[in-house]
Amino acid sequence: MARRITDLDQLTGSADVLLCDVWGVIHNGVNPFPLSVEALKAARQRGQTVILITNSPRPAGGVIRQFETIGVDPECWDDIVTSGDVTRQLVTEGPQQIYFLGPERDIALVDGLDVDLVEPGAAKAVLCTGLFDDETEQAEDYRSLLEGFKARELPLICANPDRVVERGDRLVPCAGALADLYAELGGETRIAGKPHAPIYKEALSRARTIRGEVDPARVLAIGDGAHTDIRGALDNGIEAVFIARGIHARHYLDGRATDEARLQAFLEGEGLAPAYWMEWLA
């Protein structure tokens, strides 16, 4: 069973590197979480290295610009690795004629890459960063489009494996929901973000650049996504802290408090055994 902790500094002696999720842990897409930001700043001041590891389909520069817009203090991280960063390698390895499935704001993902963005009928691969309008659409709205891609056996490169993400007080669908539907249809998906290994390899490489050799036993992942943050950390040999007040809170929240028995049952039901859990990162 996961052990409850109330302060990140309780783990100072057991971790040199923190791989921290962004959406749902540091901010909700609209507002930063001040206690989380301060916790990561304090960790850096104690000598720990903080690598933010996010399934954002944007390269790191786009995440930093979002931080500037909503007011996340840049002193709370040492480096940032995004799913978009590691997905660019998948794009370069795939066909050149790509249909871009996602909002216009994510188009920077292909900047500088030798690809041609084409209409669906001319595509030899699909690059998915999300829904065109995640405020009004759901993955099911794309079934017929995806069925057409599957009929032509196109690979779908998913730049954001998250199925949903918090935006303010709502959950909105992400590219991972479309990838799930495509896989359900029998289509081929290619994914490098959490929970898959490439993003963790890149994050640890960045940590080694900053502090030299890194003992994997002294790396700790922090996140609120059971299927991405926690599954990814454990599958890649990294211990994890589960943040309860995130996208899964409806499963075990009792009024304004977390029902620990229900939380532990939720984790067990997902086949996950993080070492620790916290209400919020603090």
UniProtKB/TrEMBL annotation:
<keyword id="KW-0378">Hydrolase</keyword>
<dbReference type="InterPro" id="IPR006356">
    <property type="entry name" value="HAD-SF_hydro_IIA_hyp3"/>
</dbReference>
<protein>
    <submittedName>
        <fullName>TIGR01459 family HAD-type hydrolase</fullName>
    </submittedName>
</protein>
<dbReference type="InterPro" id="IPR023214">
    <property type="entry name" value="HAD_sf"/>
</dbReference>
<dbReference type="Pfam" id="PF13242">
    <property type="entry name" value="Hydrolase_like"/>
</dbReference>
<dbReference type="GO" id="GO:0016787">
    <property type="term" value="F:hydrolase activity"/>
</dbReference>
<dbReference type="Pfam" id="PF13344">
    <property type="entry name" value="Hydrolase_6"/>
</dbReference>
<dbReference type="InterPro" id="IPR006357">
    <property type="entry name" value="HAD-SF_hydro_IIA"/>
</dbReference>
<dbReference type="InterPro" id="IPR036412">
    <property type="entry name" value="HAD-like_sf"/>
</dbReference>
